[in-house]
Amino acid sequence: MDLSAAMESLRKAVPAIAYNPLGYAWDCFSAFASMAYGEGQKVLFLGMNPGPDGMGQDGVPFGAVDKVSGYLGISGTVRHPDYEIPGCPVMGLEARRIEPSGRLFWGMAERFGDRDAFFSAATVYTYCPLLFLTEKGGNIALPELPRDALSMVEDACDAFFRRFLSISRPAAVIALGRYAESRARAAGLSPVYFQHPSPRNPHGRRFWEEEALGRFMEVLDDC
What we know:
The protein is of the alpha/beta class and 223 residues long.
């Protein structure tokens, strides 16, 4: 719970609207952690921060709700954030909108094998578990935060990321997007860069599952 408590303190300190899914969606996140964070996994996929239709709904990294309940087989109670805005209601696994990047990421994992096969080889870590929003409920990507707020977030999240690395000790880190790549390098790593499968990155979406799976297999072979 250290990470969840630290993120709640950070949420209150950052001058922006922020949700902490590790608080209100702890059931789902802990179910994910119990299957995803083990020993001997060679590859760590590093994401940036939640989207409003993914981890922001259910607490699971790249948490497209159809993949969370289907491929991952996760269920659990999701409460409402302490401060919830009309533009971004939390509906948990009942959410109707599906996060495109989550559907693509877990679609790639599904092509690799069932969840046990995937998590025997790899795990997934979200650099900052907080979701940042505009007043109307629009998503604010982490690098878009004001510089002072971003520095505050990075100070806290760098420390937890390094702690996670000291426990998981992956042979390779795959950074999903340039920002994740920058935080991996700040931690002293030499990550493999993958394009992020975000709707904001149209060049990263076409054939993403096939291309990412092929590169993932290459990284595994090199470990």
